[in-house]
Amino acid sequence: MLSQQKESDSAKQSKNLVYAWDGVIIYVTQEHLNKAHAHFPALLQISCGSPFAITVDEQPRSYHEVVVMASNLPHSTDSENQPYIAILIDPDHALYAYLHPLLNGNAFCSLAASALGLFQQRFQQLMLGQLSLEQVKQLVLDILVILNPKPLASLPWDQRILHACDYIKQCVPQHIPTIAEVATQVGLSESRLMHLFSEQLGLSMRQYILWLRIRYAIKLWMQGKSLIEIAMESGFSDQAHFTRTLRRMVDFAPSMLKANTIFISDFSASK
């Protein structure tokens, strides 16, 4: 039995791990290299070895141990063959209240790994896939509390925009709401809604809906659906369209993730 457990741990260690729940995605890998891309979630990157390299918006690469990065920021990361953890948090998720003050209006901030020294054992368990999803959720919260013990009391966005996000999430992907429908829900004119949405969240409503469709596609993926099923059910015209969008927003190819990744989530078969 012990031998089987070691073999199982070894298999998990050789693969990437993705933990996910609504609004949060954790990516755990033994090495990470991607091309320039930008996505809606804010990003907390943690090195579990030597510092990783980041290239931001075509600037020269720089090296960091822990980074908090704002949403919609073009970037690429190279962990240089070292273990690496990426925590993606949607800016309309409650946990973003911990990250926003750390950014202090900047595109990203760099922190010392010593701030997270007490998590080394749990990071190792995370790498080996030994933590349950509930334990991973608690780990993320514990990390955020250490980095910022005084989060915002509420998210820094206009309540009408948060209401719009909630309404859109209730609709997508079964129904793609029009701007007029959302404007009616939140009591704004269409032009004011479009302006305020982009000003607050840094992307258009159309792009926000596209991210929700990607997020739903990832949910279907983790449920074991085929790529063709995923593309159709999440509203993409075909498998190629889904693949292109995924690459552009998170720089992953579906085939690569499917072959090299273990998915752990609490997503049920229903929306």
From TrEMBL:
<keyword id="KW-0805">Transcription regulation</keyword>
<dbReference type="InterPro" id="IPR050204">
    <property type="entry name" value="AraC_XylS_family_regulators"/>
</dbReference>
<dbReference type="Pfam" id="PF12833">
    <property type="entry name" value="HTH_18"/>
</dbReference>
<protein>
    <submittedName>
        <fullName>Arabinose operon regulatory protein</fullName>
    </submittedName>
</protein>
<keyword id="KW-0238">DNA-binding</keyword>
<keyword id="KW-0804">Transcription</keyword>
<dbReference type="InterPro" id="IPR018060">
    <property type="entry name" value="HTH_AraC"/>
</dbReference>
<feature type="domain" description="HTH araC/xylS-type">
    <location>
        <begin position="162"/>
        <end position="260"/>
    </location>
</feature>
<dbReference type="InterPro" id="IPR009057">
    <property type="entry name" value="Homeodomain-like_sf"/>
</dbReference>
<dbReference type="GO" id="GO:0043565">
    <property type="term" value="F:sequence-specific DNA binding"/>
</dbReference>
<dbReference type="GO" id="GO:0003700">
    <property type="term" value="F:DNA-binding transcription factor activity"/>
</dbReference>
